Amino acid sequence: MERFPRSVALAAGLVVVFALTACGSDDPAGDKAPDTGSSSEQAASSGTGSEEGGSGGADAAALEGTWTGTADGGPVTLSVASGKAALSAGRHVCQGEVKDMGEVMLALKCLDGNTGRTMGSVESNDGKKLVISWDTGAEDTLSRTDLSALPTGLPEIPAP
Predict the structure, then answer these.
(1) Under the phi-then-psi rule, with left for phi > 0, alpha for psi from -120 to 50, and beta for the rest, what region is 102?
(2) Tens digit of pLDDT for each residue in 86-115?
(3) Contacts (Cβ under 8 Å, ≥6 apart) of 25
């Protein structure tokens, strides 16, 4: 497997971090979407991995953080925070949620309409390596990334 340049991985990671932090609106009422129960389902899912035959801790809380890898020769970055997920794969940026549907799933919508990574099932997660099988047949193997290793002092994105 060919390794991608560190600068590409850092840029992809930053795109995902910005996507996670910028997905709210300026309207406080707009940030309060109706609760679909996913938060309570996630809290209740903490034993999912061990109860279903040892999928290596594949519960929703274990996905929290940033994961990176490669697919088709390009970087793939997944960031998960508070049940929300953002994924950057090649030129595609996707956002969505972590859902407990009997197994931990990622339900994403890509900004460009791409459907290659819209519904993914967590096959395994040992805390260091994450394997996601997508409904299109693709599979991503990602490694946990330490965000403290990212460079500091980067310019901020100007407000609109």
Answers:
(1) left
(2) 999 989 999 999 998 889 999 999 999 999
(3) 31
